[in-house]
Amino acid sequence: MKRHLQILICASLCCSGVSTSAPASQGLLEKPPNVKVINLLHNAAGSTDTTSREIVRNEKGVFDLPGVGIRVRADFDGARASAVTRVGEKSIEVFIDSENKPINWSPWYSFTIEQAGPQRPDRLSIRLTYPPRENSDRSPHRYRPKLSSDGGATWKEIENSEYNHEEGVFKVNLDTLPLAVSAQELMTSKDSLEWIETLSEKNFISYEVIGKSIGGRPLHMVHIVEGTEDGKEELFILSRQHPPEVTGYLAMRHFVEYLASEKPDAKAFRKKLNIRVAPMVNPDGVDDGHWRHNYGGIDLNRDWLEADGQIEAKFNQPETRQVSKAFLRFKERKVAFALDFHSTYRDVFYHDAAIGTNEYNLILNWIYRIGAKLPNSKLDIQGSAKSYSTTAKSWMRRQFGCPAVTYEVDDKTNRQELESIAVEAAKSLIMELLERN
């Protein structure tokens, strides 16, 4: 039975003294042509009110559709379908609403179709609809539907011929029921715990509950510590602050699994660094099918800012408060790097490092190594030098003096390519950090 340590884990990699102590000889590597560097030079602190706001709780209903012969279920963890109506004998409309507003436009949906009568159509047309959206020329349909007919064990993206992205209409065959339909693979807090428990079967990996969410769900931190943890630097990792961002969560898992592997470079890395991971910071939002926020109605990645010149941030949300306290237990140690996994419309790495510093060079060299190994992958690096950003990566950098990066994974990345990039990211970070020690 694995011991459950009392530390909160974030899937965000934090760094410390390595960046400032890197030798002057560590200049920039050659930039691969598939990597784009964007530097935005501004230092605006910015401010965000993260005081809790009211949300509309997901009722997770079951919708019977007389005359169609099917039933739509949205009564499980991760489900979201606010209303379902019959449009015709072979067509339905599914309305998807968010937990509150204003909100980042990431319409999450997940539901299951099952038979509810002696007869049903062989094919069904489904239209996704959302609340009105203003001031945007981007399509309202962010996530391309994924289908599973084996209870969520495997998922397949819908074929182009069956999907009209602009209209949000797609057709599915009903020859195998129940059929699960989801914006991305359904990966709940239960799935996260199962992954953690499997990982911790190795004798150098343990985990603990570091606190609870507003909804009472446990927050976990994973500790990958081989041998003694004293005298080593730290690597911090954080993930799933935003519920729908499954590709970032998947990348985090592949990244961590490589660091915990028996590969020679991973073993050498663990002799030099301890690894702390908070894989699911927002379990309430994940399990309730939120678009963006926690039960406090807040974007957790805007709740990481010091108030009135204080050293510690005045966190308004319990999830970020407890995760930050878990990381702060290592305040006196050197943190080598911090990484926060997210998802967006492209593969992009955000950082706050000033141009020309060792910290800046370390971050760029890490990503240049990835790009050189995967020439067909397009990777963007965007720096802003916004030292008082309210994001986790900026807080990590301020608190621990380390290079910190938000790694955004493209929503649409092929899952095989996603794994390749995540594994190469782990290999390249190992190489970059070990060479600097």
Description:
It is a single chain. The chain has 437 residues and is α+β, with helices and mostly antiparallel strands. The chain is 23% helix and 25% strand. It contains 9 helices and 21 strands. It has helices at 18-21, 189-199, 246-259, 264-272, 283-287, 318-328, 358-373, 392-400, 415-435, and strands at 14-15, 35-39, 62-65, 70-73, 83-88, 91-95, 110-115, 123-129, 146-148, 156-157, 163-164, 169-173, 179-182, 205-212, 218-224, 233-239, 273-278, 335-344, 348-351, 379-383, 404-410. The strands form 4 sheets. Strands 1, 2, 16, 18, 19, 20 and 21 form a 7-stranded mixed β-sheet that branches. Strands 3-4-7-13-9-10 form a 6-stranded antiparallel β-sheet, with no helix packed on it. The chain has a 5-stranded mixed β-sheet with strand order 5-6-8-12-11, with no helix packed on it. α7 (358-373) links the parallel β19 and β20 (379-383). α3 (246-259) packs across α9, α4 crosses α9 and α7 packs across α9 (415-435). The protein is globular. The two termini are 35 Å apart.
Task: Detail the topology: elements first, then pairings.
Blueprint: E1 14-15, H1 18-21, E2 35-39, E3 62-65, E4 70-73, E5 83-88, E6 91-95, E7 110-115, E8 123-129, E9 146-148, E10 156-157, E11 163-164, E12 169-173, E13 179-182, H2 189-199, E14 205-212, E15 218-224, E16 233-239, H3 246-259, H4 264-272, E17 273-278, H5 283-287, H6 318-328, E18 335-344, E19 348-351, H7 358-373, E20 379-383, H8 392-400, E21 404-410, H9 415-435
Parallel strand pairs: 2-20, 6-8, 16-18, 18-21, 19-20
Antiparallel strand pairs: 1-18, 3-4, 4-7, 5-6, 7-13, 8-12, 9-10, 9-13, 11-12, 14-15, 15-17, 19-21
Helix pairs in contact: 3-9, 4-9, 7-9
